[in-house]
Write a structure and sequence with these properties.
heterodimer; A: 288 residues; alpha+beta; Alpha-Beta Plaits; two-stranded antiparallel ribbon; 10 helices; 11% strand; B: 445 residues; alpha/beta; 3 domains; 6-stranded mixed sheet; 4-stranded antiparallel sheet; 14 helices; 17 strands; globular
């Protein structure tokens, strides 16, 4: 009987001592974590894509809680709804970041851009870009090895075998920017989705002089400046022989696209144009 | 037993078809285009504009920094334009295009063939002259030569190594140079020795050039301190660090320059250019280019003006064979496929190689079978099988730990891989990225 008693007393004693040590240690080494971090993380989409610029949703939640002003921070996946919810939890002001989507600024398909040599190296755009200008005369355009497709975690991209160019599936794209990062040629751009998903952009990044650009690709922007003159809203600028449409200034009037001599201005999700007497209709199939 | 480097290496088929073709002078082309970035470092700044008259040897582009080089006009005539042309890098880059008219040289260049043996210039004057003459490493690396001759403070050099190895298969320009311009070459070596203030120079030559070894040994016996070191045939012996190991048994530590072990390495072509610059006042306006290939009618070695389109060289060597699958600037191991025959010869063009189609194509890539052949052939003791997936998966910190920056891009790993994996393709990418990361880290610190 005494053996049992001694055992119980000893163990209970040890337990009590351990409890005291653990209690003191937990007091001493306690790390305070803002409970709002968990709450904010809960509100985030848990995509862990890195589109916000932080390594995962948890890190973004921590940054959001820590920051005094969160108006410049945005979760591209969740968009305005998520950010409003987060702002509600934290009692801060949410920014007015517009939802974006990736667009491909190259239309140099096999048909438009003749191939001058064959690339046989490793199937990676990064490797090919470090090696040379690419299989065609245009050293700015898509290399077609699919680094962007490999980088996309949302099944929002695939390579079109026929054109040799990647295709962005608008519905799946969350504008995390992984493809933008992966593209060594900086062809993919995040642009505002726009009202009714309507967008106009120059689908070319070639900075060569007009004649050189046109020779290597028939749909290249030649920097002629016609669109710049046509635009009433100063949304179009020409720099380094290349036109760029500022999506914040663009009013989507569609006047620029028909004047482009090389059809390098793309319009997406617009209703078909009413046939006019003289102006030719841009028959370009939207790529992005 | 012949000496060689201690680690790795391969022995590809030599195919030195043009070894017995004497150096021929290629006619001056009607139009030359001279890229402003022909060397490692900052591209030179153009000094001429459209319509300017230039003479042979006139400076047309100025060195833009310490690591940069002057560029001189290789022809006389009128500047047509300063424009973008596709060069060996595969990108459009700034170049000066000159329409040739006659062949009028700058007056103070000594064009006679008389050998000037006596060295009158001081070490400082020699280095200055080399810098002015726009001389870069002619083995192919195109590192400005005057930089290598200005050791950083606190470092001293005791041996000059002259690279006559020419370990790249097919190429023979250095071989022919040693046979035909041996006397001048030795004066060039003396000049480099004076500039560096060293008493000893070793000319490393691989054993597949017995005639060059015998010839250079005979000539070198007249000079004190210069000796020829015959070497076993092993690629990449022409690599700076491998050559120092082979000739002297010294190993350059990881991430360090040869000066760390008291050595400076220059190519035979560079030594010859130094002779011409210092003794003859002739800047670097031409170089010897091997034009070769298995199906080429007349493989040859041409003394070519810089800026000549390679199409002119191919034409002179019997025309482009029908079965050509790839045109390579340089040798088959480290050379680079060219995208056009209009690409001009630059200071670094050691050869033009025409690969027949079956040989030119890459084999289909198979999975890695963990045979570790790439590890055993790597002359830098790296693990290419590991570096490739690290670069593929963008694990840059680990790639840095695995010393990716030590890679000399010799291509022995890709050459030996039984699964034809693009090892070097990815390792190059890894080097570029890790280098970028390391530079931004030093910039921050």
């Amino acid at each position: 009987m005494s053996v049992v008693l001694i055992t119980i007393v000893t163990l209970a004693g040890l337990g009590a001592i351990a409890a005291v040590i653990l209690f003191l240690a937990s007091k001493k080494f306690q790390v305070f974590e803002d409970p709002r971090i968990d709450e904010v993380e809960e509100a985030l989409p848990a995509a862990n894509c890195g589109g916000c610029g932080f390594p995962g949703c948890r890190a973004f939640a921590e940054a959001l809680v820590k920051a005094d002003d969160i108006s410049s921070m945005n979760c591209p996946v969740g968009g305005a709804d998520t950010m409003t919810a987060v702002a509600g939890i934290l009692g801060k002001e949410a920014g007015d970041a517009k939802p974006q989507v990736a667009v491909l600024r190259c239309n140099g398909s096999c048909e438009h851009r003749p191939r001058l040599n064959n690339y046989q190296g490793a199937m990676s755009c990064a490797v090919a870009a470090a090696l040379y200008g690419g299989e065609t005369g245009c050293s700015y355009g898509c290399l077609g090895c699919g680094d962007c497709v490999a980088a996309c975690k949302f099944d929002a991209m695939y390579m079109d075998e026929e054109t040799g160019l990647p295709v962005i599936i608008e519905e799946n794209c969350v504008a995390c920017g992984a493809c933008v990062e992966a593209c060594p040629k900086d062809i993919i751009e995040l642009r505002n989705i726009g009202p009714k998903s309507r967008r106009i952009f120059v689908s070319c990044v070639n900075k060569d002089k007009g004649a050189v650009a046109k020779k290597s690709c028939e749909v290249a922007c030649i920097g002629c400046g016609k669109c710049e003159k046509e635009c009433k809203f100063d949304a179009i600028t020409i720099k380094d022989n290349l036109a760029y449409i500022d999506y914040d200034k663009c009013k989507l009037c569609r006047k620029c696209a028909p004047v482009c001599p090389t059809n390098s201005i793309h319009e997406l999700n617009f209703p078909p144009r009413k046939p006019k007497v003289e102006k030719t209709e841009p028959e370009k199939e939207p790529v992005a | 037993m012949l000496k060689t480097f201690s680690l790795g290496g391969v022995h590809p088929a030599e195919n030195k078809r043009s070894a017995n073709s004497p150096i021929e002078v290629l006619p001056v082309p009607p139009v030359v285009s001279i890229p402003l970035a022909q060397h490692i470092g900052a591209p030179a700044q153009a000094l001429v504009k459209k319509g300017d008259e230039v003479k042979v040897g006139q400076v047309i582009a100025q060195s833009a920094g310490f690591v940069s080089a002057n560029i001189h006009s290789p022809v006389s005539g009128k500047v047509a334009k300063v424009d973008q042309v596709v060069d060996a890098s595969g990108y459009r880059k700034a170049a000066i295009i000159i329409n040739t008219e006659g062949d009028e040289w700058v007056e103070d260049i000594d064009r006679s063939a008389i050998l000037v043996k006596e060295i009158t210039a001081s070490p400082e004057a020699i280095v200055k002259k080399i810098g002015e003459a726009g001389i870069v490493g002619l083995g192919g690396a195109t590192f400005p030569a005057h930089v290598k001759l200005s050791p950083p403070p606190g470092k001293t050099c005791d041996v000059l190594i002259i690279n006559g190895v020419e370990c790249e298969p097919y190429l023979t320009s250095d071989h022919r140079l040693m046979l035909e311009k041996g006397e001048e070459l030795l004066v060039g070596i003396r000049l480099l020795m004076t500039a560096l203030n060293v008493k000893e120079a070793i000319i490393g030559i691989e054993n597949n050039k017995p005639d060059a070894i015998a010839h250079m040994e005979k000539l070198a016996s007249e000079y004190e301190g210069i000796r020829v070191q015959p070497l076993k045939v092993q690629y990449p012996q022409g690599g700076e660090k491998q050559l120092i190991d082979a000739c002297m048994g010294r190993q350059v530590p990881s991430g360090k320059l040869p000066i760390e072990v008291g050595a400076v390495v220059h190519n035979v072509g560079t030594a010859y250019a130094v002779y011409e610059a210092v003794q003859k006042n002739k800047p670097l306006i031409e170089r010897i280019v091997t034009v070769t290939g298995l199906s080429l009618a007349r493989p040859a070695n041409f003394l070519t003006r810089i800026g000549t389109p390679i199409s002119a060289l191919i034409e002179a060597a019997g025309g482009l064979p029908d079965d050509t699958g790839k045109i390579i600037g340089g040798g088959p191991m480290m050379g680079k496929a060219l995208t056009s025959t209009e690409i001009p010869v630059t200071k670094g063009t050691s050869g033009v190689l025409l690969m027949p189609q079956p040989l030119a194509s890459r084999k289909p890539v198979d999975p890695c079978i963990r045979c570790a052949k790439c590890v055993s052939v790597c002359p830098m003791g790296l693990s290419p099988y590991l570096l490739m997936p690290l670069a593929e998966r963008a694990i840059w910190d680990r790639a840095e730990e695995e010393n990716v920056m030590d890679c000399i891009e010799c291509g022995s790993c890709s050459f030996t891989c039984p699964s034809s994996r693009p090892l070097l393709d990815y390792i190059r990418l890894g080097k570029a990225k890790v280098g970028q990361i390391m530079r931004s880290r030093t910039a921050k610190a």
